[in-house]
Design brief:
- 41% of the residues lie in helices and 16% in strands.
- It is α/β, with parallel strands linked by helices.
- It folds into three domains: 8-51, 434 Repressor (Amino-terminal Domain); 63-161 and 295-324, Response regulator (Rossmann fold, 3-Layer(aba) Sandwich); 163-293, Response regulator (Rossmann fold).
- The strands form two sheets. A six-stranded parallel sheet has the order 2-1-3-4-5-11, sandwiched between helices.
- α7 (133-138) links the parallel β3 and β4.
- The longest helix has 17 residues, at 296-312.
- The chain is elongated, with a radius of gyration of 24 Å.
- One of its GO terms (molecular function) is transcription cis-regulatory region binding.
Length: 347
């Protein structure tokens, strides 16, 4: 086999196929017909093409690594989403490096700048913390895909849940169970997804003339300890609180539930909760959380597809993909009961 300095683009151009098709054939991934796979493998053998990920990228001045920036790598939603993105990109010859911001905007900007400094092939940004980032992203010379967030005037590729519909769906479920006063536990209000979920919730209150006060909306971040601390504050005056809550994500809900359990607040008998994400723990027997699914596998695979499309053709038209939410009803929601504190220490 003779040595040659062919790149993946050279192989793709010579055979009249896309770079992703070449990668799939070489990595024995699905999505390539037997005839095309044979043609590609025969050609790369003849010309001595070596599918070395780093070498391929460096030959064009960039390494074939995608930067993946997440808010909290400990959150099962982010880890599952990262898994599906990484799996799809690996199958197409790209490696992924994950950066964890811990929801800090400063770190987010630092990691975005690293993408350019170290010549990454592209950037996938999950749950961007601030709309101010759009100006930073505009300066990048690599493909960018936003996941689970968007900006009003962002013209690039993005995939996210219909968060307004999700918030509406969650609040509507509680209203249909007879709850008249429904609260909301939010994350960062600068986050587009949280803002849209909140707006969906508020729309239900408006449509059905449900009472609420500013105190019914609790602000914080999206961490477990936040859910715990908010529940602790609510329990201090439980009889004068909403009978149900929409929480911005499952991790916050788990903290909320833990505090309720420690203080003998029975869910859903005394208080009902709905959250977002449908993480792997949500269906466990002792949790059985009612939640809005984000279809994490579809979201991850679509994000990878958008990135691969831009890597194949940087001039390709940008896409906005909106994923429809799905309410999964389990055991943390139940009918409103006017006597819900009758046999408790809160009566």
């Amino acid at each position: 086999m003779k040595e040659n300095k062919y790149t993946i683009s050279d192989v793709a151009n010579h055979l009249g196929v896309s770079r992703s098709t070449v990668s799939k054939a070489i990595n024995n991934a699905p999505g390539v017909s037997p005839e095309v796979r044979k043609k590609i493998l025969t050609f790369v053998e003849e010309v001595g093409y070596s599918p070395n990920t780093l070498a391929r990228g460096l030959s064009k001045g960039r390494i074939n690594i995608i930067a993946l920036i997440v808010g909290d790598a400990r959150n099962p939603f982010y880890s599952d989403l990262s898994f599906y993105i990484q799996k799809a990109l690996n199958e197409n010859g790209y490696m992924v490096m994950v950066f964890n911001t811990e929801y800090e905007e400063k770190r987010e900007v630092e990691f975005i700048n690293l993408t350019e400094r170290f010549n990454f092939a592209g950037l996938i940004l999950i749950s961007a913390q601030s709309s101010d980032l759009k100006n930073v992203l505009k300066e990048l010379k690599v493909p960018v895909v936003l996941v689970n967030r968007t900006f009003d005037d962002f013209n690039g590729d993005a995939v996210f849940l219909d968060n307004f519909q999700g918030g509406y769906m969650a609040a509507m479920h509680l209203m249909e169970l007879g709850h008249k006063r429904i609260g909301f536990v939010a994350g960062h209000i600068t986050s587009s997804s949280v803002k849209q979920r909140l707006n969906g919730y508020l729309q239900v209150l408006k449509n059905y003339y449900l009472p609420h006060s500013e105190n019914d909306i609790r602000m914080g971040d999206l961490k477990m300890e936040t859910g715990y601390n908010i529940a602790k504050d609510i329990i201090k005056d439980l009889k004068n609180q909403p009978s149900a809550f929409v929480l911005a994500n499952d991790i916050t809900a788990l903290g909320f539930m833990q505090c309720c359990k420690e203080n003998d607040v029975n869910i859903p008998e005394m208080i009902s909760i709905v959250s977002f994400d449908d993480i792997v723990y949500a269906s466990l027997k002792d949790i059985e959380l009612t939640t809005v699914s984000q279809h994490v596998q579809e979201m991850g695979e679509q994000a990878a597809r958008l990135m691969l499309k831009k890597l194949d053709d940087s001039s390709s038209k940008s896409e906005i993909i909106v994923i429809e939410p799905n309410l999964i009803i389990r055991n943390t929601t139940g009918p409103f009961k006017s006597d819900r504190f009758a046999n408790s220490k809160f009566r």
